[in-house]
Write a structure and sequence with these properties.
Blueprint: H1 6-9, H2 34-38, H3 44-50, E1 52-53, H4 56-60, E2 69-79, E3 93-98, E4 109-113, E5 124-134, E6 141-150, H5 151-157, E7 161-163, E8 166-175, E9 191-193, E10 196-210, E11 224-235, E12 240-243, E13 249-252, E14 257-258, E15 269-272, E16 276-285, E17 294-299, E18 303-304, E19 315-322, H6 324-332
Parallel strand pairs: 1-2, 4-6
Antiparallel strand pairs: 2-3, 2-5, 3-4, 5-6, 7-8, 8-10, 8-19, 9-10, 10-11, 11-16, 12-15, 12-18, 13-14, 13-17, 17-19
């Protein structure tokens, strides 16, 4: 069985998103300096290559010359004109709260959108453009933007994919011949506990950067590493059996021992006769930097609901973890 992609495993992290807006007024700019008009327009690539990062205070204090290529960062908070989906239109002005500013700060960059990029109100953005001085009406630093990279587009370039829970990036895939995850198209094999069958379809390791709506689920950590296991549990007998494969313990070659997180699907519990459950179990690792090479999955046996006696024995499954590049090469063989 071959590994699955990010969208196939992200179902374990489906949270409801709530959009929020800002209805403040934009500090508009009606001035275009004669000096800026006289400057020959540079192409986007040149401006991005030449751009130096400036803070609000540095531009406010005129640390950059007019016409200089600049890079600024912050949150898009208001705009003179937006489309139905809150996207900022081209050739209009919008305000950006500086990245370093306090939430209630009134400091803003005034930006004229000359880019072709798609971005919205409330997006965190990295903006490249030309510094045109202080706005004559608001006295705020003003930039003509040729490129506006919102957080999503920047992270996608770095291999992250956006899900309902936040941005996810694959860092490893698990292989185990015993369960049939061997890089081939062969079917998966059941792990047998008497009449109970456990099919482990996929083990994936992802780095996750939770969004605002799911941040609290991960103890407000900006980035976590999660192990997702796609499994099916099947009772092939009439006997009522209790089984919790989704509460297996994971140990890693980096020295961690973790129990499953309740954010995954409900896969364990009572199996009243010939029934089955299918879904995704999740474990959250403490370390998201060390390279993983091995994960051991320790599964306690099921037991009969009447006798409370174990059915079968504890299983310990070793998964070799390959990075995405090596996993792709293995699957291609």
């Amino acid at each position: 069985m071959k590994k699955l992609g990010v969208f196939a495993v992200a179902s374990a992290l489906c949270f409801t998103l709530t959009a929020c807006g800002d209805s403040g007024e934009t500090k508009n700019s009606g001035n275009e300096s004669q000096e800026e008009k006289a400057n020959e327009k540079k192409d986007v690539k040149t401006i991005k290559e030449e751009a130096k990062t400036y803070t609000y205070d540095e531009l406010k204090d005129k640390k950059a010359k007019k016409g200089a290529s600049v890079k600024i960062e912050g949150k898009v908070i208001t705009s003179d004109e937006v489309e139905d989906d809150d996207a900022v239109t081209k050739s209009t002005y919008f305000n950006v709260q500086p990245k370093e500013a306090e939430e209630d700060s009134s400091d803003v960059f005034v930006v004229r959108n000359d880019s072709k990029d798609k971005f919205k109100i409330d997006d965190n953005a990295t903006i490249y453009g030309t510094y045109v001085g202080l706005d004559e009406f608001s006295d705020e630093p003003t930039v003509e933007a040729v490129s506006v990279e919102n957080e999503a587009s920047a992270m996608k370039k770095d291999g992250w994919e956006e899900t309902d829970a936040g941005f996810m990036k694959p860092v490893g895939y698990g292989y185990n011949d015993e369960v049939g995850i061997d890089g081939t198209d062969a079917p998966i094999k059941p792990v047998q506990f008497g009449s109970m069958q456990l099919y482990i379809k996929n083990m994936s390791v992802y780095d996750l950067r939770p969004n605002e709506d799911s941040l609290y689920e991960f103890d407000n950590q900006e980035q976590v590493r999660v192990v997702l296991v796609d499994m099916k549990v099947k009772n092939t007998a009439d006997q009522d059996i209790t089984f919790y494969p989704d509460q297996a313990i994971l140990t890693t070659d980096t020295g961690e021992q973790v129990e499953s997180d309740l954010l995954g699907d409900d896969l364990g519990g009572d199996f009243l006769g010939k029934v089955e459950k299918e879904g995704m179990a999740m474990w959250v690792l403490k370390d998201h930097e060390k390279e993983l090479k091995n994960i051991k999955m320790i599964i306690s046996p099921p037991y009969g609901m009447d006798s409370i006696e174990d059915i079968g024995q504890e299983k310990r499954l070793d998964f070799e973890i390959l990075n995405p590049k090596d996993a792709k090469e293995r699957d291609a063989k």
